[in-house]
Amino acid sequence: MARIAFIGLGNMGGGMAANLVRAGHQVTAFDLAADAMARATEAGCTPSTSAAEAAQDVDAVVTMLPAGKHVAAVYAESVFSAAAPGTLFLDCSTIDVGTARNTATGATAQGFAMVDAPVSGGIAAANAGTLTFMVGGSQQAFARAEPLLQAMGKVVIHAGEAGAGQAAKICNNMLLGASMIATAEAFVLAEKLGLDLQTFFDISSKASGQCWSMTSYCPVPGPVPTSPANRNYEGGFASALMLKDLKLAVEAAAAAGGSVPMASQAESLYQMFVGLGGGSRDFSAIIKLLDGSWDN
Ligand code: NAD
């Protein structure tokens, strides 16, 4: 049993903290939002009045926050000064590689251990404890973090040194965003060319065009009964979050001197879709922009 502070108990963090409690850990929770605090308390966490209070006298601090600026501020302004020497920090938010590396550098300089451990899998996986964690940090920090991450996920992979978890996450979601657009475009064209969509799925899902966006998350209703297309694109992975991840990928490429034309185009299309009111819909709803049927 470990004493854990959990900061950021929103859509993802709420379920993750509950799974740490279920695994027998003592979890102290802090979020700025009262409803998130109420849910965490209901799940068995001990409520705290600030991030600094939560981070005192614990073995580990887990953060699950919206973006890099929140992560940088919470560690610099609260956690670093409150935590006991040697405390392990696990940032599970999706943030830019630069902020992840800077925060880890600050942590290790002050005698803490830190990993960046962003996740693949949405709210359902956070609640079910079936997330995939991509972890950046030293071998020693990873060894300490792994059992805690196992309590919240089904796959935990050490990606490399600090920032490597974020790099893996950004590259994966860049691929996902582009492959979803390509899959949606193929279905839109198939229909225009007179193909039955189930027939096209039956062919392409077994041919060289097959990919996760088609076989597990098909953007048209019917072929994959569990995909969000079958429930009017509600739930799933919000288009606004896909846009956030594509922006991170494009920024990371610019900082590293790389060229990502597909990701740039995908970013523009999701930017347009979010601007037209599609931000809360699953990212496979981008097909509605491509076929001209989006009316919010
Ligand atoms: P969310 O907005 O539901 O939750 C974030 C929580 O952080 C909120 O409850 C907010 O009140 C809290 N918060 C913000 N600033 C704070 C501060 N200074 N101190 C304490 N609490 C603070 O977001 P989410 O969907 O849970 O996503 C969290 C992270 O996980 C993001 O980085 C996101 O990109 C990533 N992610 C989300 C999904 C998903 O499907 N929702 C999937 C994978 C990764």
Query: Looking at the structure, what is the overall shape?
Result: elongated
Strand percentage, roughly? 5-15%
Report the CATH architecture of the largest domain.
Answer: 3-Layer(aba) Sandwich
Which H/E pattern describes the elements?
Answer: EHEHEHEHEHEEHEHEHHHHHH
**Sequence stretches where pLDDT stays below 50 over 5 or more residues:** none
Please name the CATH topology of the largest domain.
Answer: Rossmann fold
Number of domains: 2
Discrete helix count: 13
Major β-sheet annotation = 6 strands, parallel
Order of strands in the sheet with the most strands? 3-2-1-4-5-6
CA(first)-CA(last) distance: 48 Å
- Rg is 20 Å
Mean pLDDT over the full residue set = 97
Helix/strand/pairing class, anyone?
alpha/beta
- Kindly report the name of the CATH homologous superfamily of the largest domain: NAD(P)-binding Rossmann-like Domain
Give the number of DSSP strands.
9
What does this entry look like structurally?
With 296 residues, this protein is of the alpha/beta class. It folds into 2 domains: 3-161, Rossmann fold (3-Layer(aba) Sandwich), CATH 3.40.50; 167-290, Orthogonal Bundle (N-(1-d-carboxylethyl)-l-norvaline Dehydrogenase, domain 2), CATH 1.10.1040. It is built from 13 helices and 9 strands. Helix 7 (139-150) links the parallel strand 8 (131-136) and strand 9. It is elongated. 48% of the residues are buried. The mean pLDDT is 97. The chain binds nicotinamide-adenine-dinucleotide. The site of nicotinamide-adenine-dinucleotide has 26 residues, from helix 4 and helix 11.
